[in-house]
Amino acid sequence: MVLCEAKQLAEIAADLLNSNSIESQRSAIPWLRAAASKGNAWAQYTLGLFHQEGEFFRKSRQKAIQWYECSAKNGFDSAQLNLAIILANLKGKSRNVTRAISLFRTAAKNGNRNAAFNLGLYYEIGKGVKKSLRKSFQWYLRAAELGEPEAMSIVGYCYFYGEGVRSDVSKAVLWYKRGAAAGDLSSMTNLALCYRDGTGVRKNRSLALRYMENAAKRGHPRASEELKRGF
Fold first, then answer.
1. What is the pTM of this model?
2. Which domains does the chain have, with CATH numbers?
3. % of residues, the chain, pLDDT over 70
């Protein structure tokens, strides 16, 4: 009964926040608080986010942490992610990378692609964990499978050069194609090079140029440099 009531309160808050009126958006705060007090994870997360960003409230990292903690305990993956990022980047003794990694793992298992990506990065550089390119690849792959475009490019790179996984150019091209389709500029650039050189695919000059020009127009520095050099 309480959870049902909390959901209804959260839905009212969500409707008000989606309004184009600032006054209506502000009026959502009491409803958010009411839903959060009854255990609604989304409302708790949203209050944490507002406190973190200084929206409708004065900025307060401490209050943001408190609300993220409540939401994270209720299984809200975005709260787990944001809380992990805060804890991993606190100064001095307050920093808690170990707990951050635990939260990243939980969020990733709950389907959060950004959490999986962060784990890939942490294992790549050895932040809070023993450096492992194999584990780094596994988490980047998880993020890519969950739809993270940048992770698709990294997975393609790992397959191409055999970093953390056995080299497989055909799989590299597959992930570059997926990344390019998702709008990742590095994927477009690398795919263009594959088509130009016939690496893992049949040579296709026009397709290579199309991908490289698309990446360059959207601001990718290497793509621009390749074109300047007469790609």
1. 0.92
2. 2-162 (1.25.40.10), 163-231 (1.25.40.10)
3. 98
